[in-house]
Amino acid sequence: MKISPHWLRELVPYTVDPRQLAEDLTLAGIAVESVSGTGDTTIYEMDITTNRVDAMNHYGIAREISAIYDLNLKPLAAKLPAPKGKANFPIEIEVPQFCTRFTGQVIRNVNIGQSTGRVRKRFAQLEQKLINNAADATNYVLLEMGKPTHAFDLDKLEGSKLIIRMGRAGETLKTLDGIERKLHTDDVVVADANKPVALAGVMGGWDTMITAETKNILIESAWWDPAAIRRTARRHAIHTDASHRFERGADWASCPISTDLVSEIILESGGELEGEKIDVIARDFNREPVSLHHAEAKRILGKEISSNEVEHIMRRLGFKLTPAHISPVATTVSTGRAAGVIEAPADYTVELPTWRLDVEREIDLIEELARIHGFNKFANTLPGFTGAVVEPEEAQRKEKIRSILLSLGYNEAISSTFIAKADSQAFSRNAIVEIANPLSEEASAMRASLVPGMLDMISNNLNRGTEPSKIRLFESGHVYSLKNVKNAETEEHDALCIGATAAAILENGTVGASASNGAEVFLRLKGDIESLLESFQHQSLSFDTDTPNYFHPGRSARAMLDGTTVAHFGQLHPNIATTRKLKQDIYIAELMLDKLIELPLRSARYTRLSRYPAVDRDFSFMFEDTITFDRITTAIRALRLAELQSIEPAEIFRGGNVPAGKYSLLLRVTFQSTDRTLRDDEVALWSTQIAEALKSLGGAQRTQ
Amino acid sequence: MYTLPKLDDFSPAALDRAVAALIAAAETESSAVTNDAEFKIFRDHWMARKNGILTQVNDLWLKAAPKEAKKDVGARVNALKTAVEEIVAAAEKRITAGPSLESQRIDVTLPGIKRPLGAEHPIIRTKNEIVRIFQRMGYSVAEGPEIETDYYNFESLNFPPNHPARDTQDTIFIAGQENKPQRDRLLLRTHTSPVQIRTMEKQRPPVRVVIPGKVHRNDAADASHSPIFHQVEGLAVDTNITFSDLKGTLDHAMKELFGSDVKTRFYPSFFPFTEPSADVQISCFKCGGTGKLNATEGCRLCKYSGWIELLGCGMVDPNVFGFVESNGYDPKTISGFAFGMGVDRIAMLKYGIDDIQLFYHGDVRFLEQFA
Ligand SMILES: [Zn+2]
User: Fold this and answer.
1) Could you tell me which chain A residue has the CA closest to the CA of B330?
2) What is the mean pLDDT of residues A611-620?
3) pTM of this prediction?
4) The CATH number of the domain where A453 resides is what?
5) What's the rounded Cα separation, in Å, for the pair B126 and A133?
6) Are A535 and A602 in contact (CB under 8 A)?
7) Do A401 and A544 fall within a single domain?
8) Which pLDDT score is estimated for B15?
9) Domain for residue A636, yes or no?
10) Predicted pLDDT at A516
11) Euclidean distance between CA atoms B69 and A537, whole angstroms
């Protein structure tokens, strides 16, 4: 909204220059977004907060200026000739709950033409479109003092009366924008004896608008219920200056003066008033006065504002203050609400101005005091605190995971929460959460998995020329699903996803698409997953091959901590990589972060270092491919050798003279005791037992 | 090369001179030795059993000495042998150690080989930085869901149904909610403020929480807008919290975040859930609040104003306490403040990032800059 400080000066005699004024207004909460031009043609672009509809015009801002500088505000007044005759134009309000007041004025023998003089000049400055002198008069008054008004061609109103009523089923109205609108029984309309002539408070009707032929006019200035106007404006998707103001609450008391101001401008080009204004009040507009306590202001603000200043701020803003000693309302009352709290006697009883519907409680008055006093005049203090500081354990656990991943060389990333529905379904078996008003088709659902977003990020990188060996990412974030499809109830979980190219996992740039070293890539990724999982307290960490179908079936694994699935990881299924045009082998890990952070972090435990030497024994065996390393260690551990420290696969070999379907394994077993040096004979005995156990798995011992 | 003189005079003074000359010669020759071959020649010249200097000393000096001087000459020759042997040994040590280590010399100006370190995302790094500032001031951390009900995102924050203030929130709604009462309808939270209510429902006053989180709005993506962004919210409620405390707390936090030279400025604003409400500006940390970088160049960071708008705040509206009054939040006896700031915007300002979209594409070349 544009405001002319030159016009403001006609309403309140401020003396500072326009740029200083802009600064002072902004610091009082009437934000001047930008200042352009100089001198009398300076223009402000305003950014008025939605609650301050009263300040969305020159007079409202002038009132703020009068409070800021403690200056007199010029009263609004229209110079009108004495009316002729009597107006015979009944206005019937059928819906007093939506239209509390309707003021009208009949003007006869007008001259419709182009606006001239101050209207023309100010419209040019404020970039307001000129229409004709009658329509311009209503717009001028809106700019001047903020009350929306409307002018009808009186002769087009049938039956010489207006009825304020609800729309009827089947009724239509062509509005000023030329659109034929179907009315709803929930729309408040202004109607003549036969038909609706305006969508109340939103837009006038086409058929009754002022034209070059118009001779007689009816001016309307009404007060409409904000919620009703908002409903209608939204239903018909119309946003007008009028609806904007009525939705936020117009000034009930200004119906007559706004009517007069419009009349005054129209009469400048000719015409005469017929009769006095018609002022139909369907319902009085009464608001309870509000008590104001100095002590309450101090309790909230931290500083006492002097009585003198309280009084001048309130009065300049249009509040009527009655000091307590002469106010009959101010007596000591117990609220009974909070036992033991006795309300102190009020220092003032405050009557609220009709244009400030945003102010209705003591706290609202305190805000007025604070903003005109100046927020920056309050000291900066720090409060004392008696509570305890809590840090959720989950946060520490998440931070631990994050720091491990960072130190393993994965870059932290954030991808979109939104996803195409089909994409979401491909990576989750859960019911998908859809968005009612999506930004686009590609963003029509909430992600159910972090994997598609991760693949998009990897793909972005490859397309933009990031060195493949550097693409190592992780993302921690929420995933969403429907837990109850019928009621569209949702649930969200913490999830974590790791994604990298094979080249990046091997940390070298030479890995091609052949991926002959898949096992090494997989085992390195597995090592990273183990580093993560092993930082949590657990009895068992196990792996199997049960993974979702978007993983490579032979190069992926599921990880379980104490039997609970906490991760899937491995190579992305090559078909998906192909569909997504990923020309690198991609490895992915999904961690069920919410499950993981239920576990405490591993606490360090000290065991005494052995002073006795460790003994290694190597076993060279050939196994069928079906004998996994897990089965071998299980068989050896089943021997329950107390001094057994570790079992390592020192060398695995396939091909050469090893027949297909088999592999050769060099197994290194380490023994150590904490209380003695191991004897050759006992190590020999254990070795025999181990060799037997390996043979029982079908292993063939090879001579070295 | 040194040749051993014959001695005529065996007086102590003459012997001293002869010994000193010999040792000086040995040292001079030793220092000229630079490689193994030279060392061998040097060593043989002095120590060869056959005709080495030390052997000659035996023959030319000891044997030639008169009887009465034999004892004195013998003692001097022994000391002299030890001294020469030490000089030769030192030369050998220098030569054998020297050349092989020299051959291991490295060009230390070549670039180091790095183990890759992952980079923290600048938003999460900034978010953590803000959260830690408030943790040091006694705030606990709280979090909440990203899909919220209308009740928590709007109603309990004093946005009545159909209120125009809801228009400013550009809300993204979850599909399939039409049959529910309005307050139960699901949407993507447009701010982290719902966690204020969730916290007060769980905890009686006093409360001090800092609430980081992701929020969403129906905003088309461009260089300065993103439908996804991050906020850090704060809430303090106690029996004696004032607007001055709000000002002091945020002034302190902004100095921690942007440096102690930064000043704060508060001006009135509007949020349904606070009253009074304020926007906070900080003096521009780039131009020092002058709006100018130098005599001729303006500061674009603060749009030449010297001030940067950074966060919204206010005193908790009594209507908000009304929703949790049964848990000890009687607006007549307690008061509180709340504040919220956009992490994306702060990260952009701190690092001079000109496109918010960079945060959400996982571009490694971008992320690596924050390692
Ligand atoms: Zn600047």
Assistant:
1) A338
2) 94
3) 0.84
4) 3.30.930.10
5) 57
6) yes
7) yes
8) 87
9) yes
10) 57
11) 88
Chain B residues whose CB is inside 8 A of the A27 CB are 265, 267-268
- Residue A159 CB: number of other CB atoms within 10 A? 12
Q: Which of A108, A214, A208 lies closest to A159, judged by CA? A: A208
pLDDT band at A337 (very low <50, low <70, confident <90, very high): very low
Would strands A162-166 and A188-191 be described as parallel, antiparallel, or unpaired? antiparallel
- Report whether pLDDT(A423) > 90: no
Q: Is residue A696 part of a domain?
A: yes
B122-370 to CATH, choices 3.30.930.10, 3.40.50.980, 3.40.1190.20, 1.10.3720.10? 3.30.930.10
Is the domain of A264 the same as that of A212? yes
Q: From ligand 1's centre to the CA of A21, what distance in Å? A: 22
Cβ proximity of A97 and A225 under 8 Å: yes
Domain ranges of chain B: 12-97, 122-370
Mean pLDDT (whole number) for B123-129: 97
A368 and A408 assigned to the same domain: no
- Determine the residue type at B186: L
In a domain, A476, yes or no: yes
Partner-chain residue, chosen from A52, A384, A411, that has the shortest CB–CB distance to B364: A411
Question: Which parts of B224-359 fold into alpha helices (H)?
Answer: 243-258, 318-322, 343-351
Instruction: Give the range of the structural domain holding residue A202, as residue numbers without chain letter.
Output: 91-281
Task: Please choose, from the candidates A426, A537, A335, A433, the residue with its C-alpha nearest in 3D space to the C-alpha of residue B173.
Answer: A433
Nearest to B208 by CA among B295, B142, B286, B154: B142
DSSP-assigned letters across all residues of A341-407: -BPPPPSEEEEPPTT-TT--SHHHHHHHHHHHH-GGGS--------S-----HHHHHHHHHHHHHHH
Among A67-81, A641-655, B93-107, the least confident range: B93-107
Higher local confidence (pLDDT), A422 or A368: A368
Choose the closest CB to B275 out of A226, A363, A387. Answer: A363
Query: For residue B236, how far is the Cα from the chain centroid?
Result: 31
Burial class (CB in 10 A: 0-12, 13-18, 19+), B162: middle
Asked whether residue A51 is assigned to any structural domain, the reply reads yes
CATH code of the domain containing A661: 3.30.70.380
The token duo for A166 is: 């609800």
How many C-beta atoms surround the C-beta of residue A73 within 10 A?
18
Give CA–CA dist B191/B144, Å, rounded.
11
Nearest to B229 by CA among A537, A696, A417: A417
Cβ–Cβ of A478/B214 closer than 8 Å? yes
* Domain count within chain A: 5
A329 and A259, same structural domain?
Answer: no
Q: How many CB atoms lie within 10 A of CB A353?
A: 18
Q: Same domain, yes or no, for A522 and A623?
A: no
Residue-wise pLDDT for B24-56, tens only, equals 999 999 988 888 888 899 999 999 888 889 888
Task: Return the percentage of chain A with pLDDT > 90, whole number.
Answer: 85
Q: How far is the CA of B302 from the centre of ligand 1 (A)?
A: 4
A6-65, pLDDT tens digit by residue?
999 999 999 999 999 999 999 999 999 999 999 889 999 999 998 899 999 999 999 999
Describe the crossing of helices A294-301 and A362-373 by its angle, rounded to 10 degrees.
Answer: 70
Q: B271 to chain A nearest CA, in Å?
A: 9
Q: Which helix (H) or strand (E) holds A501?
A: strand A489-501
> Is the CA virtual torsion B343, B164, B178, B225 positive or negative?
negative
Band of pLDDT at residue A704, cut at 50, 70 and 90: low
- Helix axis angle for B67-102 and B36-47, nearest 10°, is 170
The CATH code of the domain that includes A294 is 3.30.56.10
Q: Does the distance separating the beta carbons of B367 and A29 come in below 8 Å? A: no
* Whether B116 and A470 lie within 8 Å, measured CB to CB: yes
